[in-house]
Amino acid sequence: MKTIITILLALSALALPARESRDSLSVDGPYVLYTDGGVRVITVDPEGSIKDELLPEAPLTLKVTDHRGRYPFEVSIRPFSRQEWLVETQPQRVFVMSDPHGRLDCVVSLLQGNNVIDSDLRWTYGQDHLVVIGDIFDRGDDAVQIYWLFYKLQQEAQEAGGCVTMLLGNHEPMEFSGDMRYAKPKYKILARELGVEYRDLFGPSSELGRWIASWNTICQIGRDLYVHAGLGGDFYRWNLPVPTVNAQMSKAIFMRNKERKALSDTLNFLYGSHGPIWYRGLVVKEEKFRPIQRDTLDLILDRCGADRIIVGHTMLKDVSTFFDGKVIDVNVDNRVNRRKHRGRAILIEEGSYYVVGDRGKKRVAVKTF
Predict the structure, then answer these.
(1) Cβ contact 42:33 at 8 Å
(2) What range does the domain containing 50 cover?
(3) Positive or negative torsion for Cα 224, 228, 233, 237
(4) CA pair distance 205, 264, nearest whole angstrom
(5) Which of 105, 249, 302, 353 could join 366 via S-S bond, C-beta 3.0 to 4.6 A?
(6) CATH code for position 189
(7) How confident is the model at residue 368 (pLDDT cuts 50, 70, 90)?
């Protein structure tokens, strides 16, 4: 039996703190959760009402728009599994972006401007690869919608012989552990109105939670390593195989941070400030970040059979290279760089590494043959 619970927030908003007013709630979802009674689908409509449905089975398609009702697309629930962490053969093209942080308009603009998707938000990159280096949660109003877009594109890419690789950032585990310090008020309001913690909407019984838990933390494509924040001296000394890192990170993804720390020394390191989703020492020189030495970087690359490491996490003014191109940081302020037509991603094509923005123009970053 179909149960629909519609919560009109005009009354409940009166009880909210001023900074979390009704105006903070905008189009959101869908959140898909599996229960003993069926499939629970939660959305917020343009009028600011929460629609909470219990269905006998997952709907054939889910309708998604951004928080203002723009960029509509449909997505179907599908099976998925963890991707291989190692792709030995370099694809003809690899498009790399990071840290979307809830800004669907910036994602769409970048991907359309570089012909990765079309005007209907469908995959048009053929057999080529898209890599997203983590951090979709927080700061913006469309985190859930961005997850669904990449969820959809991953399936479309696979059908075309291409690939969408998603990597964990630090903000995915933060939200999963209940750390919402960077989240927009709308997400806290939604959780309060539903009588749950926001993390419960991405738990192991949710479709998006399960999918995110299948992401790797580190991957390698050709001779390039990809990781959200970085790999430093501590990573080298731990000498953890990449598959072990990926499995351990997923093992603890739904735990609170203190639970991860208590579970094992390995998890305490991996989720800590010098682990792969937090370490900044590849691109920042302050002593507190334990900046890497060139010989240690070379040892890491040699151990992994790689030529460079591509990261996000640390925000810079433009896409930047370090250590003579052995490290590339692609994280920027996406809104500002979109407006100012500065770099927002890299394109790896025919042995060269180009900085690209929303207009698809290429600027050489690193050239190798």
Answers:
(1) yes
(2) 3-75
(3) negative
(4) 25
(5) 353
(6) 3.60.21.10
(7) low
46 half-sphere exposure, CB direction, 13 A CA radius? 6
Q: What does the block give as tokens for 247?
A: 């499995």
Contact 112, 357 (CB under 8 A): no
Q: What is the mean pLDDT of the chain?
A: 92
Q: Which two tokens stand for residue 68?
A: 């203002």
Number of residues in the chain: 369
pLDDT tens digits for 23-74?
A: 588 999 999 999 999 999 999 999 999 999 999 999 989 999 999 999 999 9
**Chosen domain end from 75, 100, 123:** 75
The SS3 assignment for 222 reads coil
Residue 115, sorted as left (phi over 0), alpha (psi -120 to 50) or beta, turns out to be left
Contact by Cβ (8 Å): 9, 169: no
Tokens representing 84 are 């291989």
Q: Are residues 24 and 135 in the same domain?
A: no
Whether residue 69 sits in one domain with residue 100: no
Q: Are residues 283 and 134 in the same domain?
A: yes
For 170-215, give the DSSP string.
SHHHHHHTT--TTS-HHHHHHHHHHTS-GGGGGSTTBHHHHHHHT-
Is the bond leading into 17 cis (omega within 30 degrees of zero)? no
Q: In the sheet where 320-322 sits, what is the strand order?
A: 86-87, 218-221, 224-227, 308-311, 327-329, 320-322
Hey, is 14 helix, strand or coil? helix
Nearest by Cα to 32 from 22, 23, 24, 42 = 42
pLDDT digits (tens, 9 = 90+) for 318-339: 999 999 999 999 999 999 999 9
Looking at the domain assignment, is residue 143 inside a domain?
yes
